[in-house]
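FIELD: query
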Amino acid sequence: MKHLDEYRDGRVARALLDQIRAAVTRPWVLMEVCGGQTHSIVRHGIDQLLPASLELVHGPGCPVCVTPLEMIDKAHAIAQRPEVIFCSFGDMLRVPGSRGDLLTLKGHGADIRVVYAPLDCLRIARDNPDRKVVFFAIGFETTAPANALAVHRAKLEGVANFSMLVSHVLVPPAMTSILQSAQNRVQGFLGPGHVCTVMGFAEYEPIAAAYRVPIVITGFEPVDLLHGILMAVKQLESGRHEVENQYRRLLGRDGNPAARALIFEVFETVDRKWRGIGSIPKSGYRLRHEYRAHDAERLFEVEDVRTNEPTICISGQILRGLKKPHDCPAFGTACTPQHPLGATMVSSEGACAAYHSYRRHLGEAAR
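FIELD: result
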């Protein structure tokens, strides 16, 4: 707790805010990429403490939020089959598909189980050789090593009744997509600390150079975030555009080489759809051909499921930093955590859920 308290120290936070106010001389727009950062920013009111000319917008860094509707429907189609034990992390159970959610299916008799690690599913598959056990593998690069390990072990041990429905997405292509948009407002990024503990941050350097934007990899505590904001503002004010590492206590430029090697052995890069955004080239993982025997999408023949997004939900504009949750006409009324219209309201890391939890649905506080 002592180590954690250092990054929640009010005196340090106030000093950083004073430095940010002194450094800002013109309007700037920064995007925090990670949903965990969004939650911390809203929880601590960091965005409301900054100078009025410095705006934070919220990026597509919540893995639950960006899992496309059609992938949820594929999960439902598989989970309803009587021979299937469908395993998922708990935060996916209430994400709405086009006809309800996994929790509703469970209430109707589907064998849907919450697990805490993909290796738990491998144990379930060993214990139930007459059933087909499917794990719903979502997430960014952060969760990819554990998922890759489970598939690797299944193949090595010959656990033929274990498969994985893969919906992995990657951060750098999403950032590039945002910067390439004609509507883009983002001038700098707070990069995802947890992703970079796995992947490192070398792959962000070409993005910073090509689009002339500073990228500061930060942690998730208030002092981390304020320090990262200060570093990004100093770059913007001086005309620099580099990748800097604020999160040095946990990561280096190369990340975790062993974890990366396992990812690249099991997965290959493909185009991937993002909920509310659409398809982004080379922005996701799928299982390599060598692991096709554990590919649930192929085994259960759900590759061709296609679903249209609801028109009332503006999550795509929120995830690209174009709008805030309170700009949505359904926010806090037709769309609430109890009755969500989209995944950004369901996930604990979603911007809409964070705004609702910390009473932003009552209106933006005066800045």
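FIELD: remark
DSSP finds 18 helices and eleven strands in the chain.
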